[in-house]
Every structure is written in structure tokens, then in C-alpha cells.
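Final report, closing paragraph on structural work. Over the funding period we assembled a curated collection of sequence-structure pairs, and we close with a single example.
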Amino acid sequence: MKEPPADNRDLTVLDRISILSGRLTAWLTLIMVVVTFVVVVMRYVFDAGAIWLQESVVWMHAVVFMVGAAYTLQQDEHVRVDIFYRSMSKRRRAWVDLFGTLLFLLPLCAFLGYKAWDFVAVSWQLGESSREPGGMPYPFLPILKSVLLLMPLLLALQGVAMLGRALSTLRERR
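Its predicted structure, as stored:
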């Protein structure tokens, strides 16, 4: 993992939350690989299976992407059309980051959180579990669906950190 230097004064608490989410995601990826290996060995060596274990791999995969998004943004490794951005001055990049965060990232986070709220709430209210016999029991599905609320929250927090950095850059004298 690429981490900023320890003496980096721009590293805020919000950045640290994103870095922590990235580290947790890295460990979850390792767990996902181990569980996948166990599923394969159980199936092809012992001719046995566990539906809940197979389902857990799919859910872990989703969690890796959703929880890892803020870390990816913090590390500046997200997808961006970089044709113009890379050749811009630091100040112009700060303007792009400022407007991009205010016009796209934060509204998207608010929209995702708003749309996910009822979906997650209903899952908790119903005590949802897997439809498959032997699948994941309650409360695993509602917990996993709650990540749909965690992702926009983590992204928004990282967006606020980006806003702070952009504003700081714009306040600097030329």
C-alpha cells in the first residue's frame, strides 16, 4: 500500500479513516482468498459444500469494493480521465478537485445513502436471511447490506478531506 509520509501535515483524521478502511479491505481480501480455497477443496477433494461459505465469498467481494473505494480515492488511484488533469498546475488541479467533489462526489454520496436507506432498513426489519437452504443466516445479510450506507459515508468523509486540501492549496500564495 502506498502511504503518505508520516510527517505529512496534510494527513487528516479523515485520511486516516480511509487508510484504515483500506487496510481492513486488504485483510478481507486475504480472508476471501482463503475462504475461496476452502470452498474449492471442500468441493473437489471432499465432495462437500457449504452454501453459506460460497455466499460469503460473493458478499466479501462486494464489501472489498465498497469499503475500499474511500481508500482508493485517498490514494489518488481512482479512475479519472487524466488527459488534461496531469498537465495542469497544482492550483488548477485544486480547482478541479474542489468542483468535482462539490458537484459530483458529495451529491452522489448523498444520493446513494438516500436510496440505500430504505433497502437496508427493510432488510433489518424483516430479519432477512439467505433464500438458499443452508445459506447465510440472519443477521449477516442486513449487516452486509448496511455496507451500502457505509460506502457513501466513507467516500463523503474522504471528499471532505479532499475539499480541505483543495482549499488549502487555493489559499496558498502563488
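Residues 1-7 have pLDDT under 50 and may be disordered. Residues 13-171 form one domain. We thank the funder for supporting this effort.
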